[in-house]
Design brief:
Strand content: 15-25%
Helix content: 25-40%
CATH superfamily: Naphthalene 1,2-dioxygenase Alpha Subunit, Chain A, domain 1
Bound molecules: fe (ii) ion
Structural class: alpha+beta
CATH architecture: Alpha-Beta Complex
Order of helices and strands: HEHHHEEEEEEHH
Shape: globular
Largest sheet: 7 strands, antiparallel
Length: about 260
């Protein structure tokens, strides 16, 4: 990940805000919610202003004609942006090693809607002092997911980093931190409410969804179903990775015994 993250120079950042949220669901359900964006369109009115849900998979048979056109335009924009960003020294293309490495991860720099600068409600930078030595804020969002319990978004002006820690069988702690350039001053370079607004709202919406899943899984009528190959392939990889780690641990335990 070093070449992808280097332009954002994380050593020269500070934590602008940190927030802990107790989600009413277990760690597995919390992670599974994070690894699909099928729910984004209907549940994240703030996040889907800057974020194109197409970047995280979609079911082609569910799209109408105009949505299909939109998805094709998005694919062209993605290609063009990757070419331009990489030419400017910003690694951007997808790397997905979510289920074939012990330290499973995924990354890609994705274009954002509107001004294309940040995860904000007006899609523009929240912090006027950009990260590292960047001189262009229109860099979309670089996501970095790691197994088993984190995801991160790096924009030109700030980063949002997340980790999930299990508390008990029905509760998890989601810890979110917003990072800005170390010299950025609150109230001068950035407005805190604007910086954190989109993800504070999104986290609460996800927490509510995780709670519904936990309630559903607890019911006696619950039946498991297959994952969608179009919209839940990254959930499948999360589960694959976890099963692989358990099998490996089992083999090691047996070898010792
Ligand atoms: Fe979500």
């Amino acid at each position: 990940m070093a070449p992808y993250l280097a332009p954002h120079n994380l050593r020269e950042t500070k934590v602008a805000y940190s927030h802990d949220l107790i989600e009413p669901g277990n760690w597995k359900l919390t992670m599974e919610n994070n690894r699909e964006c099928y729910h984004c369109g209907a549940n994240h009115p703030e996040l889907t202003v800057p974020l194109f849900a197409y970047g995280f998979g979609f079911a082609p048979e569910e799209l109408d004609e105009s949505e299909r056109e939109h998805a094709a335009e998005y694919a062209c924009m993605l290609n063009d942006n990757h070419r331009d960003w990489e030419a400017a020294g910003l690694p951007s293309r997808e790397v997905d090693r979510l289920d074939d490495m012990v330290t499973g991860f995924r990354t890609e720099r994705l274009p954002l809607s509107g001004a294309g600068e940040s995860h904000t409600i007006d899609t523009r930078r929240a912090c006027n002092k950009l990260m590292g030595n960047l001189d262009n804020a229109k860099l979309g969002g670089l996501h970095f997911w790691t197994q088993p319990n984190s995801w991160h978004h790096f924009m030109g002006d700030h980063a949002v980093v997340f980790s999930v820690l299990p508390i008990d069988a029905e509760h998890s702690l989601l810890r979110t931190k917003w990072l800005v350039h170390k010299d950025a001053v609150e109230g001068v370079d950035y407005d805190l409410e604007n910086l954190i607004g989109v993800w504070m709202a999104t986290n609460q919406q996800d927490s509510d969804l995780v709670g519904y899943c936990q309630e559903g899984a607890r019911m006696t009528g619950y039946e498991q179903g297959p994952y969608s190959p179009h919209t839940e392939m990254l959930v499948e990889k999360f589960v694959n990775w976890y099963v692989g780690r358990m099998l490996s641990h089992l083999a090691e335990t047996r070898a010792v015994a």
